[in-house]
Amino acid sequence: MKTTNIYTGSLSTIVMKLLNEHDSMYGYQIVKRVIEITHGELQITEGALYPCLHKLEAAGFVEVSYAMIGRRTRKYYKLTEKGTRETVKKLAELERYIQNMRALIHPKFRQAE
């Protein structure tokens, strides 16, 4: 399965979750990690990732730093405190969404509320 609208709608949550698990990451590192975690089922394109990162930065959820790697400058992304709080909120929303989807797909397995 390649990137679908379902995943696209969750891209910022996926990125923020990964950044929450690591001190900082650069774009290609995020792409590789998603592929590893999903065993290739989800592949984020640069065309989707970088606009997402820019929006997160503009919202104050992510801060950017730069490091020289050889002769190249690498751009690293890190969650801010505001971004960490937003990540917790987005993950809770995603968990509720997943629970509701499970209930719709398998109604007899719905968890007691």
Automatic annotation (TrEMBL):
Gene3D superfamilies: Winged helix-like DNA-binding domain superfamily/Winged helix DNA-binding domain. It comes from the Bacteria. Residues 15-86 form the Transcription regulator PadR N-terminal domain. InterPro entries: Metal_resp_DNA-bind_regulator (IPR052509), Tscrpt_reg_PadR_N (IPR005149), WH-like_DNA-bd_sf (IPR036388), WH_DNA-bd_sf (IPR036390). This is PadR family transcriptional regulator. It comes from Gaetbulibacter aestuarii.
